[in-house]
Amino acid sequence: MASFDGSQWAFPYTSQRMPVLAENVACTEQPLATQAALQALAAGGNAVDAAVAAGIAMTVVAPCMNGIGGDLFAIIWDGEQLHGLNASGRSPQAWTPEYFSKYEQMPSRGWDSVTVPGAVSGWVALSKRFGKLPFADLFKAAIRYARDGYIVTPIASRQWETQIADIKHIPGFVEAFAPGGHAPAPGQRFICPGQAATLEEIARSEGESFYRGALADRIAAYAQATGGALTRADLEAHEVDWVQPISQRYQDIELHEIGPNGQGIGALMALGMLDAFGAPGLPVDSTEYFHAQIEAMKLALADMHRYVADPRYMNEVDAQALLNPAYLASRAQEIDPAQARYPGPGLPLKGGTTYLTTADASGMMVSFIQSNFKGFGSGLVVPDTGIALHNRGWGFNLLPGHPNQVGPRKRPFHTIIPGFLMRDGKPLMSFGVMGGSLQAQGHMQVTARIAHGQNPQAVIDAPRWRILEDNVTVLVEWNFPSDVVAALREKGHKIEVAPRFSDEFGGSQAIARLVDGYLGASDHRKDGHAGGW
User: If we measure between CA atoms, which residue out of 86, 51, 29 comes closest to residue 392?
Assistant: First the structure.
């Protein structure tokens, strides 16, 4: 089993939040969700039960980040091997290129951004394959929070309010999630009875109602009445995929990701380039260290947005070709140590996502992520249900012949990715980073720091950088070393420094395996909370 030695217990960065060490651990974006996970563990459940219970609770206590109408991915260490779950939905059958000929770009709101929601199917699949508790028991905390209410935190209130302006005109949204036309104020109790009723129905039917029952009928009827292409047949056709994670070695650890249609391959590609470039020998937090990472990531992003899509449509270049060591070594040769280069444009994707991770005393670990994509997603809320429908269709493009061109019954390019680190064939750390296109970039930054010997809490606290949608501008956090910012600018990087409370850098949680238990690390950037016993 992996363990961190005493030299790694330094906390050099802003926040210096202390990690939780215990035999059973849950780390989520919201303390109430962490409580739901710990309650599941205390009731005799395992890490999967805890993750699902926390994920369901998160749809209630952080609706501006994820929801019942979102998607889900997970990586599970069952004590012997890794399993990957892709519970992202596909496009409606009616979504042909001709259907979208009226648009110049993929819409970000409304029905023409709504693919089939997969989160509910992910909860069911995880519970059926690995869970110990009755499925309905996993909903108890979430239903209580929805029916009786919970107190909204200052961070959640701020993020909630920033997302309301451009969707409050969409029918049904204000009634469900913006009482009085505004987000709940910090300290205010928020109640959503529609969510409570919907979660009770999902729990009772073990998810069947959402895809083949009364809830499916309500979703389809709402689409038909308000101009949507989504049908009952589209919902019925949905299914999850159990997949083998893909991986990349960096020094003595391996980063595992869910393969395309997700962006996790971007982190793997960048790490492969860094290894070929010789980046492991660079001092942590030096100008050279950040320069190499940024340049490798720009190359990976350029390739990722050109080739990555639903794997059934990656006919020109597949995942194996993108991870070919010779190819990554050739790409690494394009990194100039002396100056910044600009290999091509990326794709603008900002997200509303929640990541959580759990681990139990038996050795099971879960890396779990679900999302509505951009905040509340499409802005559409099925009346009286609290089902906010995501806008994952925005991840498609309209480029003829592109592998990610919109088409029927097709999965779009996806931003949400759970991460998992292994060392010598044994679990080292389950982790995730939220924030749309930041996620692949964040996974690479986290992995490199762990490989350099930093402890998980320090890694999460460390200042982050983010390449923006133009694949040119690099946004850095407010506490980024000023001398490094100046030196990077001298190399030709276009650097912008974000304000202290910027939402551009998401949040992160991680659980690292110790000899006698786990270390749970959470992020100060959001309401991150680690708990254990």
Answer: 86
